Amino acid sequence: MAEYGPRLYSCCKCRNHIALHDDIISKAFQGRNGRAFLFSHVINITVGRKEDRNLMTGLHTVADISCADCCEVLGWKYERAYEPTQKYKEGKFILEKLKIVIENW
User: Fold this and answer.
1) Which of 6, 26, 29, 56 has its CA 20 to 30 Å from the CA of residue 35?
2) Where do the Yippee domain residues begin and end (predicted)?
3) What is the Cα–Cα distance from 66 to 79, expressed in whole angstroms?
4) What is the pTM of this model?
C-alpha cells in the first residue's frame, strides 16, 4: 500500500499548504461566506490587525489570516473571547471552507 502523507488543506488560490486535517477541532462553524472549520494550528499564514467583532456567539477580538504566498484572506484567528463559554476559541483559527482545498485524500 502506498504512503500518501498527511491529509492537508491548501489555499484555494495558490495551493500553499495551510493546515493538517488532524488539527481540525470542529467543522460546525460559520464563516463570512458559509461553512467554516475551527483549527488548533495553521501554517504559512500572516495574521492581520486585531479588531473587535460581534460574531454569532458574542463579542470577540479577532485578526484576519491570509495566505503567506498570495495574500488571500482565508479566515481569522480568535485572539480573545469575552464570553466565558467561548474562551476555548482563544488562539484558534477559522478557515472558511470555500477558501481551502483538500490535498492527499
Assistant:
1) 6
2) 7-104
3) 15
4) 0.92
